[in-house]
Design brief:
By secondary structure, the protein is mostly helical. α1 packs across α2, α3 crosses α5 and α5 packs antiparallel against α7.
Amino acid sequence: MSVTVATHEDETFIRFALRQRLEHIILLVAFTVLAVTGLIQKFNQAALAEGTIQFLGGIERVRFIHRTFALILAIEAIYHGVTMFYTFVLKRERPTMLPTPQDLKDAWQMILYFLGRRKERPLFDRYDFRQKFEYWAMVWGTIIMGLTGFMMWFPIQTTRILSGQWIVAAKAAHGAEAILAVVSILLWHMYGAHLNAEVFPLDTAIFTGKISKERMLREHPLEYARLMEERARAAGEPAPVETPKT
C-alpha cells in the first residue's frame, strides 16, 4: 500500500496536544508515587519496604501520600473522561482509541510478520492495537484501583451498603491489580517507550508532542495518508505518492 505525501523530509507533525502531554506527566508521577507507597505497604515486612517507610516518615505519612496521589489520579481520570465525552460525543470527532475488528487482523498479521510468515508489517492508523490495549488496560485498572481503594479508605461507609466480605475482596483485588499494573509498565510500556530499537533510549513524542515524518511513515502510515489527502484537498491539488517504511 502507498500513501500520499507533499511534505519536506524534515517535517514534523503534532501528535499530542499540550493537554495530553500534561495528562501524561501527571499520570506518570501519580502512578509512580502510588506504586511505591502502595507496594511498600503491601510488603511491609520486607527490609527494603520497612526502610522506605521509615525514610518517608512512618506508615501514617505513607498512607497520607498514597491517598493524596490517589485523589490526584481520580481527578485526572474524571477530567480525561469529560474531555473524551466532549471530543467524541459533543464535537463528534472520530474516536481513535476504540478497538475495531481491524485491530484483531493487525495483531494476527503482526504475529505472522514476527514469525517470518509475512514480508511486511501491517499498516497502522493513529493508534495500533498494542497502544489501544495498553490504553484500555489503564482505564480498567484505574477504575478497579479507584473503587477498591476508596472502599478500603472508607470501610465503615462501605459496610453500610455492602457486607464486610467486600472489604476483604477489595483489598485482594487492589493488591493484585497493583502488581499487575507495575509489571505491565515495566515489561510492556518500558519496552515500547524506551527499549524498542526504533525509539531507544526514549520516545520523546509524548513530551514534545511532535513526531517526525519518518516515524509517521513507518508507524502510522494510514494516518499520514489521511492527513496528506486532507492537505491536498484543502490546497485544491493532488499529492504525490510515497511508500511507507515497514
